[in-house]
Design goal:
alpha+beta, Immunoglobulin-like, four-stranded mixed β-sheet, 2 helices, binds copper (II) ion
């Protein structure tokens, strides 16, 4: 019995590791934290270079969110540009998506109380890419890493 349990746990752990890098859809959701900040429920997604990544995103909030994929190390550049759009009042019409060469992919706006499915091709170059939401005040806590590993 004990051995069987161990095997089950082992298989479960292997399954979880496999699931993180599978070609299947990845479930993500928006979270409002106790202190009022926003975040994604996952801090890191691991995918294979060049694979199609499908995200099934649930937004239980009353706020809109976005999901941008950007070059490694670009979080602060994008955040600063998003903050500027809020100050200039130029962001709303473009859903707070700045025009920057570091941005690789922008998902459709994640509307309140909706689940949105979207997909994109993982970059061909392995690295730790930035996932970020640039709606006003979100980016500092609503960010994650797309860890792209080689095939
Ligand atoms: Cu957000």
């Amino acid at each position: 019995m004990r051995f069987t349990q161990l095997v089950s746990v082992g298989l479960l752990a292997a399954g979880m590791i496999f699931a993180q890098q599978s070609d299947g859809p990845i479930a993500m959701r928006a979270v409002t934290n106790d202190d009022g900040t926003m975040s994604y429920d996952k801090k890191e997604l691991t995918v294979t270079a060049g694979q199609t990544v499908t995200i099934v995103f649930t937004n239980p909030d009353t706020a809109q969110h976005n999901f941008m994929l950007a070059a490694p190390g670009s979080m602060k550049i994008i955040g600063a540009a998003a903050d500027k759009m809020v100050r200039d009042d130029t962001g709303e019409d473009v859903n707070y998506v700045p025009k920057l060469p570091q941005i690789i992919y922008v998902a459709p706006v994640l509307q309140p109380k909706k689940t949105t499915t979207f997909d994109f091709k993982a970059p061909a170059e392995p690295g730790r890419y930035v996932i970020i939401c640039t709606f006003p005040g979100h980016w500092k806590t609503m960010n994650a890493v797309l860890n792209v590993v080689s095939k």
